[in-house]
């Protein structure tokens, strides 16, 4: 029996999916989840007909899903070889899991990014990269994991000696792909970063993240909210978006009037150029007047406080976009 074409959501973290499941239900659109943690893939099989939306995250390995990245690579390659329509497909996955890939692509598009040096290898290479960085850009700097998310490996250092001590300590955590970034530390002009949410190459809304209270951990999903006072999750594991997060942690708010900012047009063109159909792109307006773009999230999550204030819903715009693609690809 042939299954009617439908939307398939490929992901690895059930805790992040409830807002999207609710959006599918609200829009009356059928979908099926494919959980890519481990499993089998019959290369002689033919994929079902449908639209395949990838939500694989760069931070999957932090949830003991270390195989998800390569499993998704295999599945997306199989789907695309059979001509299936993917959303945030194989090429976009590579951007998701590599900040080096993101930063080089952004720079090639003429979008300003922070000064960055990548170290490939262990602590000795990280220190070598930091010395090179400091010689050209003295001052505070941060380290980041190339395959990041959730602030992985992000630490501020004011001197090379501080980094050297950290690298020799038990607190040092090696990046999963062996690549560490040394990046200039910049101060936000208004104490916050901006996350520009894009669906189908169009702005949905822009979000302000509070760096003064949230620091480097600014994942907007309610399921990964961190209480700045305790450093602990606000919501217990397995909780869904239906549970209201602690209002005291409101690190995210809607940025009004951002649609007219020139950077939005540059971002939408960037997503067109790279085939990115769903994204949250982050920038920081610095105290010295620059706008630096530093992260492209292609498995973007949404914050319930912002959703309540926004004129449009991010998850519902995604579902509407996927439903349009389904109708266009499989006309009645």
Radius of gyration using CA atoms only: 20 Å
Give the ordered list of helices and strands.
Answer: EHEEHEHHEHEEHEEEHEHEEHH
Strand content: 15-25%
Fraction of residues in H or I helices: 25-40%
Helical segment tally?
Answer: 10
**Average of per-residue pLDDT values:** 90
How many strand elements?
13
| N-C termini distance | 19 Å
Secondary-structure-based class equals: alpha+beta
Low-confidence stretches: 227-248
Shape call: globular
Largest sheet: 5 strands, antiparallel
Major beta sheet, strand line-up:
11-10-9-12-13
Secondary structure elements and pairings:
Blueprint: E1 6-11, H1 18-27, E2 31-35, E3 50-54, H2 68-81, E4 85-87, H3 90-96, H4 99-108, E5 116-120, H5 123-136, E6 141-145, E7 155-157, H6 160-167, E8 179-184, E9 192-199, E10 202-210, H7 211-214, E11 252-255, H8 262-274, E12 278-285, E13 291-297, H9 304-309, H10 314-329
Parallel strand pairs: 1-2, 1-3, 3-4
Antiparallel strand pairs: 5-8, 6-7, 6-8, 9-10, 9-12, 10-11, 12-13
Helix pairs in contact: 1-10, 5-6
Short structural description:
By secondary structure, the protein is α+β, with helices and mostly antiparallel strands. The protein is built from ten helices and 13 strands.
């Amino acid at each position: 029996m042939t299954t009617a074409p439908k939307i398939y959501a490929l992901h690895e973290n059930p805790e992040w999916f409830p807002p999207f499941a609710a959006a599918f239900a609200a829009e009356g659109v059928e979908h099926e989840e494919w959980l890519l943690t481990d499993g089998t893939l019959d290369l002689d099989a033919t994929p079902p007909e449908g639209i395949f939306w990838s939500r694989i995250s760069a931070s999957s390995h932090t949830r003991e899903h270390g195989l998800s990245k390569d499993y998704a690579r295999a599945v997306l390659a199989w789907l695309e070889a059979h001509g299936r329509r993917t959303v945030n497909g194989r090429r976009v996955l590579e951007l998701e899991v590599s900040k080096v890939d993101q930063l080089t692509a952004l720079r090639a598009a003429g979008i300003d990014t922070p000064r960055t040096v990548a170290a490939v290898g262990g602590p000795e290479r990280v220190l070598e990269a930091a010395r090179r960085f400091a010689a050209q850009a003295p001052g505070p700097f941060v380290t980041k994991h190339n395959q990041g998310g959730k602030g992985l490996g992000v630490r501020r250092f004011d001197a090379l000696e501080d980094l050297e001590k950290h690298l020799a300590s038990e607190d040092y955590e090696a990046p999963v792909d062996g690549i560490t970034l040394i990046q200039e530390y910049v101060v936000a002009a208004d104490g916050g970063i901006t996350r520009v949410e894009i669906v189908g190459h169009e702005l949905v809304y822009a979000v302000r993240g509070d760096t003064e209270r949230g620091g480097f951990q600014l994942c907007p999903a309610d399921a990964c909210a961190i209480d700045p006072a305790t450093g602990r999750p606000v919501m217990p594991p397995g909780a869904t978006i239906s549970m209201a997060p602690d209002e005291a942690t409101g690190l995210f708010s809607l940025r009004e009037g951002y649609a007219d900012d020139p950077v939005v047009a540059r971002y939408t063109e960037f997503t067109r150029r790279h085939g990115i159909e769903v994204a949250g792109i982050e920038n920081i307006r610095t105290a010295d007047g620059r706008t630096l773009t530093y992260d492209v999230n292609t498995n973007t999550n949404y914050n319930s406080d912002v959703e309540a204030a926004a004129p449009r819903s991010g998850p519902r715009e995604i579902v509407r976009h996927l439903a349009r693609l389904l109708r266009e690809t499989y006309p009645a």
